[in-house]
Design goal:
heterodimer; A: mainly alpha; two-stranded antiparallel sheet; two-stranded antiparallel ribbon; 14 helices; B: about 325 residues; 13 helices; 4 strands; about 70% helix; globular
C-alpha cells in the first residue's frame, strides 16, 4: 500500500507523467461502456448502478468520513430524492417537470429532511444519531408504503412506474440511437451523464475537504471538545455535514428514479443503507479516492458472485446451498467488522493522517 | 371502555416484552456506553432456536409446558453463547478505539447474524406450532368485553419475575456490585480487584439470556418469527430504554411498559381519530374522501411501528436523560 502511495507521489512530482496517467484513466473511462456492452448491456447497467453507489458513498462520506457522524439510515434521503423525482415526472400526478429542475428540488427536499432529523439529535452523543437515523430509514419506508390512503401520494407498495427518462435538449437518454451499424443503447448514454455528474461531485468533495468547512469537520471528528474550544460552532457544522450528505443522497435518488423508470419502497430497505456504509468503511472513511474504490469494489464483487457463486456451488455440492444474496450481505457485514478490527482507516487511509505523520519539523 | 381496557392489556403485554429487551440494551450501555445493535438479533435467534425445539417436540405428546420450557432452555444457552462471542470478537478489541468503530462493528455483526439466521431458517416467516391452547379470560362482566389470554398472563408474570431476578442480581450479589463498580469507573474497579473483562462478558451474557426469553415470548405471542424481526423490536426496545433513561434498570422497565402502552393505544385510537369521516366533522374538505372510502384514515394501525420512533425523537428533544436517568446525553 505504501508503494502505491509513493508511486503516486512520484507521479505528482513529474507533471508530464501525471497528465499522461490522467489521460489514460480518462480514455479508459470513456471506452469502458463500449467494452462492457460487448460482454452484455447488463454490465453497463451494473456499472451505472455502481456509479450511483459511488455518488451515495461520497455523500455518506461527508457525514461519516469527514464529520465522523454515524448515519445508519442514509438510504432514506436517497428514497426522498427518488420519490420527489418520480412524483414530479411521472403520470402519477400528471406532472412532467424537466430533470434539471427536479434533481435540485430532490436534493433540497432531502436536505430539509436531514435538517429536521439532525436538529434534535446532533447536539447529543453520536450513538443517538446512529439509532435515530436507523429508525428514520425505517419510518420513511413505512410512510412510503402506506401513503396511498386516503390520499394516494406514493402509490404504496406497488410503487411508481413509467417515470420520465432524462431528456437532454429534447433527446431521450433512454432511447437507442443508431449510428450506421452501431446501436448506442440507453444505459450507455446514461453512463456518460453519470460520469459527468460524478466528476462534478468529486470536484465538489475535493474542494470541500480542504476548505474551512472541511477542516472544521475534521477537527470535530478528531476531538469535538477541542474543536469547540477553537471557536467552531460544532452543532451547526455537524448539521451542515448532515444536510449536505442528505442532499447528495437526494440527487443520487433522483438519478436512480430516472434511470430505473420504476421505484417502490422495496428499493430503500435497511440493507441498502448498510451497503453504502460498508462501501465507505471498506474504502477508507474520509478519503474520497478510498470511498470510490470501496463503492466500486462492493458494487462489482456481488455481481461477479452472482454469476459465479451459484454455478460453483452446483459444481461442488450438486445444488445451491447459499443464496448469492445472503453471501452478498454477509460480505458487507463482515467487511465492516473486519475493517474496523484490522484496518480501521480503510483500504486507502485518509491522506490527512499520512500527512500528519510524515511532517518533518 | 372495553376496547380501551383491551388495548391496555395488549399494551401491557407488549410493554413487558419491550422492557425485557430494553434491560439488555441498558445493561450493556450502562457498563460500557455502547449501543449493542446486535441485541435485537440475539432476541431473534432466541425466538428461532425456541421455534426449532418446539416444532421438533410438538408431535412427541409431551405436556405443552415441558415443550415450551425445553424451547426456552435451549434458546438461553445459544443466545448467551452468541452474546459472548459477539462481545469477545467484535467489541472487546475496540474498547479503547474511537467511538465510531464499535458502532460500525455492531451494525456489521447484526447484519451478519441476520443473514446467518436466514441461511439456517430461511427467508420466509415461520409460524410457531400452536401447542398451548389459547384461552381468553374475561376481565369485566361483559361477555363481549375485554379479555386477557393465558399466554398474556404468562408473559407478564415471566417478565416481572425476570426483572425481579435481575434487580436481585445487580443489587444483592457480589457480581452485581462488580458490575456497578465497572459501570461507574472501569479502571478503579480493576484496581480494586474486579476482573473487568469477565464482568463485561457476564453482562453481555445476562443481557443475551434476557433477550432469549424475550424472543420466545414475542414468538409465542405473535405466533410468527422472521430473520429480520429483531431489527424493529430492537429499535423499539432501545427507544424504550432511552425513554426510561439509558443505563438505568428501573428506567428500562418503565420505558418498556410505557412504550408498549403508547404503541397499543396509538395503533388502536389514532386510526379512529384520523379517520376521514371523523375529520370531515371538524374540518372542511374531507367530504369526498369520506364518501369514497369511509373506513380509511390517515394514521391507521399500519403506522404502529412509527410511534416508538416519534417517542424517541421527542425524548431526545425535551428530556435527553430520559424519565429516570440522571446521566446527561451530552457527552462528546
Amino acid at each position: 500500500m505504501n508503494a502505491i502511495a509513493n508511486s503516486v507521489a512520484n507521479l505528482r512530482s513529474n507533471p508530464k507523467l501525471y497528465w499522461v496517467g490522467v489521460a489514460l484513466i480518462a480514455i479508459s473511462l470513456l471506452a469502458l461502456p463500449f467494452v462492457l456492452a460487448m460482454v452484455g448491456t447488463a454490465w453497463v447497467r451494473i456499472t451505472n448502478l455502481a456509479i450511483l453507489f459511488v455518488l451515495l458513498s461520497l455523500g455518506l462520506n461527508i457525514v461519516v468520513g469527514f464529520a465522523g457522524l454515524l448515519d445508519l439510515g442514509y438510504i432514506a434521503f436517497y428514497a426522498v430524492g427518488a420519490y420527489v423525482y418520480a412524483l414530479l415526472a411521472s403520470p402519477h400526478f400528471g406532472l412532467h417537470l424537466p430533470w434539471w429542475m427536479i434533481l435540485p428540488i430532490g436534493g433540497f427536499v432531502a436536505c430539509i429532511f436531514g435538517i429536521l432529523l439532525g436538529t434534535p439529535t446532533l447536539k447529543l452523543r453520536g450513538d443517538y444519531l446512529a439509532i435515530v437515523t436507523l429508525g428514520f430509514g425505517e419510518i420513511i419506508r413505512i410512510f412510503l408504503n402506506n401513503l396511498s390512503e386516503p390520499l394516494n401520494l406514493t402509490n404504496g407498495p406497488k410503487g411508481l412506474a413509467t417515470i420520465d427518462p432524462i431528456r437532454v435538449f429534447g433527446h431521450d437518454l433512454s432511447s437507442t440511437t443508431r449510428i450506421g451499424d452501431f446501436a448506442m443503447q440507453g444505459p450507455l448514454k446514461y453512463y456518460y451523464l453519470l460520469l459527468i455528474i460524478l466528476l462534478v461531485v468529486i470536484v465538489i468533495n475535493l474542494r470541500l475537504q480542504n476548505s474551512r468547512i472541511g477542516r472544521a469537520w475534521e477537527a470535530i471528528r478528531e476531538d469535538e471538545l477541542a474543536a469547540r474550544a477553537m471557536g467552531i460552532n460544532t452543532t451547526r457544522m455537524k448539521l451542515l455535514a448532515f444536510a449536505m450528505g442528505a442532499s447528495f443522497g437526494g440527487i443520487a435518488g433522483g438519478l436512480f428514479s430516472s434511470i430505473q423508470g420504476f421505484i417502490s419502497p422495496e428499493s430503500f430497505i435497511l440493507n441498502e443503507s448498510v451497503m453504502v456504509l460498508a462501501m465507505v468503511v471498506l474504502g477508507g472513511m474520509g478519503n474520497i479516492w478510498g470511498v470510490i474504490l470501496g463503492a466500486v469494489l462492493l458494487s462489482f464483487v456481488p455481481e461477479v458472485l452472482r454469476y459465479t457463486a451459484e454455478p460453483l456451488q452446483k459444481m461442488i455440492f450438486g445444488k445451491s446451498i447459499i443464496d448469492p444474496e445472503v453471501i452478498r450481505m454477509l460480505l458487507f457485514g463482515l467487511a465492516m467488522v473486519v475493517m474496523m478490527l484490522y484496518r480501521p482507516a480503510g483500504i486507502l487511509p485518509s491522506s490527512v493522517r499520512r500527512r500528519e505523520l510524515s511532517r518533518d519539523e | 371502555m372495553d376496547i380501551f381496557l383491551q388495548q391496555i392489556v395488549n399494551g401491557l403485554t407488549l410493554g413487558c416484552v419491550y422492557a425485557v429487551v430494553a434491560l439488555g440494551y441498558t445493561m450493556v450501555y450502562g457498563i460500557i456506553q455502547l449501543i449493542n445493535f446486535a441485541h435485537g438479533e440475539v432476541v431473534m435467534i432466541g425466538a428461532m432456536v425456541a421455534f426449532t425445539v418446539i416444532t421438533a417436540l410438538a408431535g412427541s405428546g409431551a405436556p405443552p409446558v415441558i415443550i415450551v420450557l425445553a424451547g426456552i432452555t435451549a434458546a438461553i444457552p445459544v443466545c448467551m453463547a452468541t452474546g459472548y462471542i459477539v462481545e469477545r470478537t467484535a467489541y472487546r478489541p475496540l474498547r479503547n478505539a474511537p467511538r465510531l468503530a464499535p458502532l460500525i462493528t455492531a451494525i456489521g455483526v447484526s447484519i451478519v447474524l441476520q443473514h446467518v439466521a436466514m441461511m439456517i431458517w430461511g427467508r420466509n416467516y415461520i409460524s410457531f406450532p400452536q401447542i398451548v391452547q389459547f384461552t381468553p379470560y374475561h376481565i369485566t362482566s361483559n361477555p363481549n368485553g375485554a379479555t386477557i389470554s393465558n399466554i398474556q398472563i404468562v408473559i407478564i408474570l415471566m417478565s416481572v419475575a425476570m426483572m425481579a431476578l435481575l434487580l436481585g442480581l445487580v443489587y444483592k450479589t457480589r457480581m452485581g456490585i462488580a458490575m456497578r463498580a465497572v459501570s461507574q469507573r472501569p479502571d478503579v474497579a480493576g484496581l480494586m480487584g474486579v476482573n473487568i473483562n469477565s464482568v463485561i462478558s457476564f453482562t453481555f451474557m445476562i443481557g443475551a439470556a434476557l433477550g432469549a426469553l424475550a424472543g420466545v415470548m414475542v414468538g409465542s405471542y405473535y405466533g410468527i418469527a422472521h430473520y429480520q424481526m429483531g431489527f424493529l423490536l430492537g429499535l423499539k426496545a432501545f427507544s424504550a430504554a432511552v425513554l426510561g433513561g439509558i443505563g438505568n434498570l428501573g428506567g428500562a422497565v418503565l420505558g418498556g411498559i410505557l412504550m408498549g402502552l403508547i404503541e397499543s393505544l396509538g395503533a388502536g385510537y389514532m386510526g379512529d381519530i384520523t379517520n376521514v369521516c371523523t375529520l370531515d366533522k371538524f374540518l372542511p374538505g374531507f367530504q369526498s374522501l369520506c364518501e369514497a372510502n369511509p373506513n380509511s384514515s390517515f394514521f391507521g394501525s399500519n403506522y404502529k411501528d412509527v410511534y416508538a420512533f416519534i417517542v424517541l425523537i421527542l425524548v431526545l428533544v425535551f428530556r435527553p436523560q430520559g424519565l429516570l436517568g440522571e446521566r446527561t446525553g451530552d457527552r462528546a
